[in-house]
Task: structure prediction
Amino acid sequence: MRRALKHHRNGEIKQAAELYYRVLKAQPANPDALHLLGVIAQQAGDNKKAIALIEEAVIIRPKEPAYHLNLGSAYAGLDRFDEAAASYRRALSPKPDNPEAYFGLGNVLFHQKKTDEAILSYERALSLKPDYSLAHVSLSIVWLLKGDFEKVWKGYAHRLTGPEYAYRVKMHAPRPNWDGSPVKGKTILLWDEQGYGDTIGDKNYDTKGFVEAMRELNVTPHVAQNDKNRSSAIDQRTTRHEGYAISQKYRKRIEEIFGWMKTVGNLRKIKYRGQAKVSWHFDFAAAAYNLVRMRNLGAGPV
Result:
């Protein structure tokens, strides 16, 4: 097991898995080997296999917090949120000072739209681990949905801390961040920090080649899954994160603009000919839509 764990920690997954299976051949009821093979399956995006393996380990050793923690993560990867929440709570039962379990539970509660409970869970994780950058960022997303922008900025600043966001720190390195000081006489560089993964969302981009190319560039491809009569190139490595769900929820708002302009703005069967006239009509329709949006945004209770 020691050799297997060493390979696993060094990222040598194939060698680790082979050794775990050797352990199981000699000791079929070894819960650690079962659990860690489940972890490897989960890391590869196969949450069904992960659940089957880790559940075997739980049967053998039912009070091990680490087993329930990773089982909860596997359940969450399949959107089985009730079972995920139960697993995270079991992980906390013998070890109530586990920040990772509170973080996982917060993610599940967020997906269940229990935002107030999610906030409490994230805050509990941060009270136990104040430099937990993933919890800071996830909590900031909840505050974004609640409209508390001061807390959003404070929490989201942690995306530049911690090992999970090392690539962003590297990308920021050439220039210091703006500290809010006056900008008169200075130049501010606006950087598309989220990358093209938040920009490219069409199902036609759900191809193996495109997704692999984006990941090589450290870009998370938030493309819509095209799984009708085919397998999607987007797996649980992407879909299990709350950011992906938010992207899919809000990306349609872009389509709503063009839909309105085509129907109400008469752009579907435009009567004008010539680039100048068509361009003018487009600008006019866009301006009209902005007026509609301003009216809706400014509407309050009567």
Notes: Confidence is low (pLDDT under 50) at residues 195-200. The longest helix spans residues 275-298.
